[in-house]
Write a structure and sequence with these properties.
It contains 2 helices and 4 strands. By secondary structure, the protein is an alpha+beta fold. The strands form 2 sheets. The protein has a two-stranded antiparallel ribbon with strand order 1-4. A hairpin with a 2-residue loop joins strand 2 and strand 3. It is globular.
């Protein structure tokens, strides 16, 4: 299971703040999840108000 941040992201940063292992980074006002660091705990899913964090298919 791999999480990604979709285009629905509002760039609020709540997911990055919630990520305990700092797998979510901001570059050029876009947030991305570093798949080499992410442990797929799902904590970021619960703080995203718009559901922009989804499982990649």
């Amino acid at each position: 299971m791999v999480y990604i941040i979709s285009e629905d992201c509002l760039h609020c940063g709540s997911c990055a703040d919630e990520c305990q292992i700092k797998a979510i980074k901001e570059e050029d006002r876009n947030f991305t999840i570093d798949q080499d660091v992410c442990v797929e705990c799902g904590a970021c899913l619960f703080v995203c108000d718009v559901g922009a964090i989804v499982m990649e298919q």
